[in-house]
Amino acid sequence: MKQIAYTMSVTDGREESWTEDITAVVPDGQTEWEHAQEIMKRFNDYLQKGEHLREVLMIRVLKRLKPGMKLSHNWQKHSLVTQTGGFNIMKCSQCGAMGKRHSLQGFTVIDRKYAKYESCPNKRV
User: Fold this and answer.
1) What's the CA gap between 40 and 108, in Å, rounded?
2) CA 25 to each of CA 2, 31, 82, 89, 102: distance values in angstroms, whole numbers, following the listed order
3) Sheet with 2-11, side-by-side order of all strands
4) N or C: which terminus of the chain has fewer CB atoms within 10 Å of its end residue's CB?
5) CA-based nearest residue to 99, from 72, 69, 123, 64
6) What pLDDT digit, counting tens, does each position of 62-94 carry?
7) In what order do the strands lie in the sheet with 108-110?
8) pLDDT band at 106 (very low <50, low <70, confident <90, very high)
9) pTM
10) Residue 101 and residue 125: Cα distance in Å, rounded?
């Protein structure tokens, strides 16, 4: 098994493509491309009425992690506007942990509730 992080470009044939960030444990012998195709097949197997089949256009590998390496959080802005006090609310797209970023280029301080997740557990908490 190997842990990887990659960005997958996806389209449903109706609009411009978009990207989705994936962090996953991939079985030995399976490529990142095969893993992305498997995810898309699972999604397409359970389409709801009115949804269109999705197709993987390309992937870009971001990281290949060695066993036991700590995974960093993937912080994304969660608040629409800067909060009173000059900070933005951030959320990890991988595990859902919340934090505050006090400047545009600054680092995110994880909320006390999630303090035990110094590194990302790579699953919803």
Assistant:
1) 32
2) 5, 11, 35, 28, 33
3) 18-26, 2-11, 55-65
4) N
5) 72
6) 767 666 566 678 788 888 888 887 788 989 888
7) 75-77, 88-92, 98-101, 108-110
8) low
9) 0.50
10) 20
